[in-house]
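Help! Submission page says 'invalid entity' but I think these are all valid:
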Amino acid sequence: DIQMTQSPSFLSASVGDRVTINCKASQNINRYLNWYQQKLGEAPKLLIYNANSLQTGIPSRFSGSGSGTDFTLTISSLQPEDVATYFCLQHNSWPRTFGAGTKLELK
Amino acid sequence: EVKLEESGGGLVQPGMSVKLSCTTSGFTFSDYWMEWVRQAPGKGLEWVAEIRNKANNYATYYGKSVKGRFTISRDDSKSIVYLQMNSIRSEDTGIYYCTRTHSSYNVMDAWGQGASVTVSS
């Protein structure tokens, strides 16, 4: 199975900060990496698919990059409503596997 | 509006069975593969099972920890996907999410709110 190592596990940042979250795959997954946001008590929401494609309706401050084994989710200017847990998912091969998640809070 | 709503969870005794349902609306169910993903308390997300659509012969896939015990199925006429969980164990405790993946793009793009399953005697 492909292991997804996500970092950091916890992140505290201020409104307006640039925030980056990383996922590293244990083997090449090409660009088959999605990023999700989960707010407390809500269903996870797709932000970025296939490494760098912004899902419809997601603010442009969210962006994704990377290919192969290293991927990054960037929030260009953190907003209060971005407080959530973020996780990655690889869908290059089965079983699909997830990163452990990054809990983002406001400083 | 796309909706996925899980039901059927609750408290289950070890060794017993439980069946989860995911009722969907707002999209063409037959275009999508449907999946179950779970999260144990304090743990990360674990993919559980997938069922593809008619165009992909309703093929099914399972995670190693549930293979042989869980069965995923779907009723396209009702736009519902099921997860039959047999020989349930304490490690099956968690939140079970229903998700959809578009069959052409292989992107998991919508999730339900989740159903809680607690395995305890």
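Support: the input was valid. A stray whitespace character was the problem, and the output above is from the cleaned input. The interface with chain B takes residues 32, 34, 36, 42-46, 49-50, 55, 87, 89, 91, 94-101 of chain A (CB under 8 Å).
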